[in-house]
Amino acid sequence: MEALQRLLPVAQRDTGQSRIVGRFLLSLYNGNAFPFCLTDLRGLDTQLWEDCLALLRLDRRPEVEIHQYVQDGEHVWSDLKQAWA
To answer: What is the pLDDT of residues 35-59, one digit of tens each?
Structure first.
């Protein structure tokens, strides 16, 4: 969960890495509606890349949807949709 806590603030900013992280998080939320090209991960710093891989591992067999790990997750992901969809 620490990885998600580090990635969310990045996704909520307005940088090139923010776009990548935001679109990655949206793809975990709904991959059909928000497809993500894995080669985009090459544009991330090493720590962000590692955090994305940690989330991908977590989401492999999810117990809950990714947004449910976050307080007010529906609202947070709604903001991500507006910014990066």
So the answer is: 999 999 999 999 999 999 999 999 8
The dihedral of CA 46, 49, 53, 54: what is its sign?
positive
Tell me what the pLDDT averaged over the chain comes to: 95
Give 25's Cβ-side CA count (13 Å radius).
34
Alpha-carbon distance of 38 to 54, in angstroms, equals: 14
What mean pLDDT do residues 77-85 have? 95
In angstroms, the CA 22 to CA 24 distance is 5
Q: How far is CA 68 from CA 17, 25, 83, in A?
A: 23, 12, 19
Q: What does the chain come to in residues? A: 85
